[in-house]
Recover the amino acids of this structure.
């Protein structure tokens, strides 16, 4: 899928380069994201912890688009977006060992990650009132560039309990916290005025597991709802 997406991106960029400049439109966009993570694995108490029950987090996105018309109502729209993902959950971790070797952490877990994302969307646009309503969909590939993991709760070691509050940088890699790549589908819709201003919403459906190989008990995939404004010129 990644090779197909790369080939498609190259074809779109080539088409843009050879298109007439008065046909191609450029755009900028920004807004708020409400990301979460879908986690599942069917683990039991004998083979590992249950996957976290993630809730929605809050972050932002900022990006640009190139709108390449194919017909009066249809266009191809590649782009580049800096987008925040992640999620938050209540977690309980234990080594289930009695006595002085006992370790338990119970509290909140918050994940904030940032990706550079390349979407390639097929967009349909229809004239309604003083502007155009548009909707579309297409694949994306995201590249993880940074993030934070925050813990806030109570840690038990043996008979000693203590408050635990910490933060550390996310490690990307196949054998780390999360894989660097994220492949999925975009869905978008919005309304654009004739002066180029638009409001829009989108949803990113991650298709590949982002969990690193060091976590084998469950799989996690990104889910991102977004709303924002933009301008095309």
């Amino acid at each position: 899928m990644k090779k197909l997406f790369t080939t498609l991106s190259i074809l779109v960029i080539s088409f843009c380069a050879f298109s007439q400049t008065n046909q191609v439109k450029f755009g900028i966009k920004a807004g708020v994201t409400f990301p979460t993570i879908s986690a599942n694995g069917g683990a039991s108490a004998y083979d590992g912890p249950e996957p976290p029950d993630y809730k929605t987090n809050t972050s932002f996105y900022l990006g640009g688009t190139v709108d390449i018309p194919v017909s009066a109502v249809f266009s191809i729209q590649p782009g580049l977006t800096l987008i925040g993902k992640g999620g938050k959950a209540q977690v309980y971790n234990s080594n289930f060992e009695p006595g002085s070797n006992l370790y338990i952490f119970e509290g909140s877990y918050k994940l904030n990650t940032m990706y550079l994302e390349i979407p390639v969307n097929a967009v349909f646009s229809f004239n309604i009132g003083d502007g155009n309503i548009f909707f579309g969909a297409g694949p994306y590939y995201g590249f993880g560039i940074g993030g934070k993991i925050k813990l806030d709760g109570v840690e038990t070691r043996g008979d000693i309990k203590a408050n635990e509050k910490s933060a550390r940088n996310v490690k990307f890699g196949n054998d780390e916290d999360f894989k660097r790549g994220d492949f999925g589908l975009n869905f978008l819709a919005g309304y654009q005025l004739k002066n180029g201003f638009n409001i829009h919403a989108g949803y990113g459906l991650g298709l590949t597991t982002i969990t690193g190989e060091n976590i084998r008990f469950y799989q996690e995939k990104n889910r991102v709802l977004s709303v924002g404004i933009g301008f095309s010129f």
User: Anything to note?
Assistant: The beta strands are 25-40, 59-69, 74-94, 103-128, 131-157, 160-169, 181-193, 197-206, 219-232. The chain has one helix and nine strands. The longest helix spans residues 2-18. Residues 2-19+30-232 form a domain with the Porin fold (CATH 2.40.160).
